[in-house]
Amino acid sequence: MAFTITMLSWSTIEFKEKLEAKRELSNALKAIKWGTDYLMKAHNQPRVLYGQVGDVASDHACWQRPEDMTTPRTTFHLDDKSPGSDLAAETAAALAAASIAFRPVDDSYATQLLHHAIDLFAFAVDKPGLYQDSFKASAHAYSSSGYDDEMVWAAAWLERASGDHMYMDYISRHGHGGLRQTFCWDDKYVGAQILVAKGGVWEEYKEQAEKFICACAQKGGGSNVKMTRGGLLWFLPWDNIQYVATATFSLSLYAKYLDTYHQANIKCQDATLTSADLTAFVKSQV
Predict the structure, then answer these.
(1) ∠ Cα 123 113 133 (to 5°)
(2) Fold held by 1-174
(3) Is the Cα dihedral 275, 281, 284, 285 positive or negative?
(4) Measured distance between the N- and C-terminal CA atoms of the chain, rounded to whole angstroms
(5) pTM of the model
(6) I need a surface site. Which of 132, 133, 152, 237 has the fewest CB within 10 A?
(7) What confidence score (pLDDT) does residue 201 get?
(8) Which phi and psi angles does 170 have, rounded to 5°?
(9) Among 163-167, 233-237, 257-261, 271-275, where is mean pLDDT lowest?
(10) Closest Cα to residue 127, out of 88, 90, 170?
């Protein structure tokens, strides 16, 4: 849920003019606020984050309307004794990104979001750990492969939202993740690489972001993402479209950056790509 709110906020920030032109900006902000209101309620103390309601096994076995469910609604939370840096940092990223989206229209709400994000990131740094070690049942549903990506991703958003360079200092002490195979709820490195690359610092982040983009656009040499016979990017068999959506978003965003910064192209292993090339590829995926 937090990743969804982060991505929706990012799209609203970057494509604000497009949304305004179609009179959809207010709808996008309402959707974000629906999520951020919930996330802030879940963060009712600086070092506490409620991260799960209900039992994984009984919920998955129940195929009724939520209104009719009688399964246990047990709550689980992170705190100093039960840390979860991945969940806390992703929630921090969501709230920081949303604060940027809301800053032009509701300064007070944006400030509230940012304060929650700052507290959650500090908690994640101070008490490292995987959230499924605290919520044992989650290991059977949405287990996290690590928290380093969420930490860098959250730091990149917080630097952008707050202007505090301490977050860039954090990023400088941690790795960029190398070439990633997907951009998804469990692996945010590509998003962090693009955010940092946009800031014009650390060439290695830009290099890794562009390697992913080249691989998606089928110009990355031996690292190209597989495609179906019909021409769709093929990442993983379970809900493949989610990975296509984030990949095409990344390419659309990078095409926008190329135009904005008057950078002519990306030099891939097999070809040189312009912003028009990236946009054409995204349209082919749509």
Answers:
(1) 30
(2) Glycosyltransferase (1.50.10)
(3) negative
(4) 24
(5) 0.94
(6) 237
(7) 58
(8) -60, -45
(9) 257-261
(10) 88
